[in-house]
Design a protein that fits this description.
10 strands, globular, 28% helix, alpha+beta, Ribosomal Protein S5, domain 2
């Protein structure tokens, strides 16, 4: 008898803008941002096994087993120790790129194991569990592009134009903790409304801090700015620009491939795990 299997995309995201509007007493920053989900990301396969415990295989080098967000997410579900599951990941989303790869992997793990073992958690319960691992995890659990506030956990689904994105990875790893801890970071941007997003009155407050510390990010953004409105996603290192058609995006991507690691992906408003 075949064992139950789920194979699914673990999608990446872009922050179309990111404003830091304050800092709480506990040190966390109050943010406003829009999470744009993408039709591109890692591929994860979950398979029930006869061997109790969790087996993690694939592209998992560079992160100690106990620190891997996939493992941490599985442990949050408090699975029966007699259950066994094999998780394989085909990793394409770069670490430290601001694309939410680790958070997406954690969310995908929560959703897949909940489905595979019929655990009965609601989406809200899974999102709450995921938030203990990182502020970006809930948006992937819910599977919807969203306007986000608070520490990134107060989500309102948003319908965005179906655009194509060029994403450039400058081949450097940016530490989120370092950037949010930078003394020169702007922490008092006035809150805005959704309409300001579509008027273009937005920016990424982290971008100047990152560019002063990581020259590669500045070089990549300035190159991409010759071909479109370029910005950094999250705390970096990736930069992106939006285009109305795949053909436009591919033309610019062809020019960029000689100098940069380039990704072309389409924005999606909703994603349902298969």
């Amino acid at each position: 008898m075949n064992k139950p299997v789920i194979e699914t995309l673990s999608p990446a995201k872009l922050n179309l803008f990111l404003h830091v509007v304050g800092q709480r007493a506990d040190g966390y920053h109050e943010l406003q941002t829009v999470f744009q989900l993408l039709d591109w990301g890692d591929v994860m396969r979950f398979e029930v096994t006869d061997t109790p415990g969790l087996q993690l295989t694939g592209d998992v080098s560079g992160v100690p087993y106990s620190d891997n967000l996939i493992v941490k997410a599985a442990n949050l579900l408090d699975l029966d120790p007699g259950l066994g599951v094999s998780i394989n990941i085909q990793k394409v989303v770069p670490m430290g790129g601001g694309l939410g790869g680790g958070s997406s992997n954690a969310a995908t793990t929560l959703c897949a194991l909940n489905s595979l073992f019929k655990l009965g958690y609601s989406a809200q319960a899974l999102a709450s569990l995921g938030a203990t691992l990182g502020a970006d995890v809930p948006v992937f659990v819910r599977g919807e592009s969203a306007w986000a506030e608070g520490i990134g956990d107060k989500l309102t689904p948003i319908t965005l134009p179906r655009r194509w994105f060029i994403i450039i990875y400058p081949n450097c790893h940016v530490s989120t903790q370092e950037i949010f801890g930078a003394p020169e970071l702007t922490r008092n941007t006035p809150p805005i409304t959704v309409s300001a997003l579509f008027e273009g009155s937005v920016r990424n407050d982290l971008q100047p801090v990152v560019e002063r510390r990581y020259e590669q990010v500045k070089v990549a953004r300035e190159w991409l700015s010759q071909h479109g409105l370029a910005a950094m996603t999250g705390s970096g290192a990736c930069v992106f620009a939006a285009f109305d058609s795949r053909d436009e995006a591919m033309q610019v991507a062809t020019l960029a491939e000689n100098e940069f690691h380039v990704i072309v992906a389409q924005g999606i408003n909703r994603y349902t795990m298969v």
